[in-house]
Amino acid sequence: MKVNIFQSPNYSIKNRPKKDIKFIVIHYTGMQSVRACIKRLTSIKSKVSTHYLIDRKGKIISMVDEKNTAWHAGRSKWKNFTNLNRHSIGIELVNKGHQFGYENFSKKQISKLILLCKFLIKKYKIKKSNILGHSDVAPLRKKDPGEKFPWYFLSKKKIGYWYNPSNKNIINHNMSKNDLRNIFFSNLYKIGYRYFDKKKSSQSDLKIIKVFQRRFRQNKVNGLIDYESLQISHYLASSPKY
Ligand SMILES: [Zn+2]
């Protein structure tokens, strides 16, 4: 695997032990050009960085050494972890993002991502359920890598987790809207999502539902707890590996 180096000054000086690295967090850059991304990721002022950047031609650029904490995830939570930066490797994929013209990820980009993930998974023994999108760990602030990111395809390559449909019907049609909401959010909590109250709805529910759909029900990101979304959350939450 050929890797180019373009060092970023934005990382925590203290080295971290290998065993602290438990997650891979995937992003899109969300900027107009590759040059702008590199500039931002290497500028002292921006205070952001990533371990790896993959451009649309499949070129991998290493910006921060894996043993250092890069600043890619910001305020974040997943299961009992807060500040995911400390525990993760960050990978940025060049893509204009929702703001500037969200595009399909290129084939070359994804095949290099697969190679890189396989290398990291082996090196740090990263669990399938610990390969996440930025929006999973910061759902109120982020949408990346978004609904065009091929999570299902990657899961077929043993990268990341996918659900296994069961025949169990969990919908009781007498349930109130509130009950449905609470079941759905309890499932999300089991899966690892945070930033909501399991028992009390709030205005930010919509963002969290969409983040879940961008990951697991990509063809319809409507922010509604519909039958399919609820089922998927249930398959995931009741999976023994989670
Ligand atoms: Zn991001």
Folded structure, characterized:
The structure is a single chain. This protein has helices at residues 34-42, 97-100, 107-124, 134-137, 151-156, 177-191, 205-216, 227-237; strands spanning 3-5, 11-12, 23-28, 52-54, 60-62, 69-70, 77-78, 81-82, 88-93, 131-133. With 242 residues, the chain is α/β, with parallel strands linked by helices. The chain folds into 2 domains: 3-156, 3-Layer(aba) Sandwich (Lysozyme-like); 177-237. It has a 6-stranded mixed beta sheet with strand order 1-5-4-9-3-10. The chain binds zinc ion (ZN). Zinc ion binds next to loops.
Oligomeric assembly = single chain
Number of domains: 2
Q: What is the overall pLDDT average?
A: 95
Continuous helix count = 8
Which strands sit side by side, in order, in the main sheet? 1-5-4-9-3-10
Record field, number of beta strands: 10
In angstroms, what is the radius of gyration?
A: 18 Å
The CATH topology assignment of the largest domain is: Lysozyme-like
Q: Helical amount among residues, as a percent range? A: 25-40%
Spell the H/E element sequence.
Answer: EEEHEEEEEEHHEHHHHH
